[in-house]
Specification:
Largest sheet: 2 strands, antiparallel
Distance between the termini: 37 Å
Strand content: 5-15%
Number of helices: 4
Helix content: 25-40%
Radius of gyration: 14 Å
Length: 98
C-alpha cells in the first residue's frame, strides 16, 4: 500500500471511526498524560502488506508528536524511551521490567 492510498475513501472512513472509538493517544496515556489522538498507527509496520494494513487489531491511536518521534525511534532502534508515573521504564525490555 502506497502513501497515496492513505487518502482513499475506505481509509479515511476507517480512520475516522477508529479515532472516534479511541480518542486519546495511547503512548501519552502510558505516561499519565491526556492528549487527543490524531493518527491511526500500525503497531507492527505493514510494509505494504494489505492484510496487515487493514488488520484493526494492529492499529493504535496516537497524537502526531508521539507518532513522529517516539514511535519512529522505536521502529528504528527497537527501544522505547520514557517512564510511567511511578518512574518505571515504559520499554518492556528494560532490565527493570524483567
Amino acid at each position: 500500500m502506497s502513501r497515496l492510498q492513505y487518502n482513499n475513501r475506505r481509509w479515511i472512513r476507517e480512520r475516522k471511526l477508529f479515532l472516534q472509538d479511541h480518542p486519546l493517544c495511547r503512548m501519552c496515556m502510558d505516561h499519565g498524560k491526556v492528549t487527543p489522538a490524531t493518527v491511526v498507527d500500525h503497531v507492527i509496520p505493514h510494509r505494504g502488506d494489505d492484510d496487515r494494513f487493514w488488520e484493526k487489531s494492529n492499529w493504535q491511536a496516537l497524537c502526531k508528536h508521539c507518532h513522529d518521534s517516539h514511535k519512529q525511534r522505536l521502529e528504528t532502534s527497537g527501544r522505547s524511551v520514557g517512564a510511567r508515573l511511578d518512574g518505571s521504564p515504559t520499554d518492556p525490555r528494560h532490565h527493570w521490567n524483567r
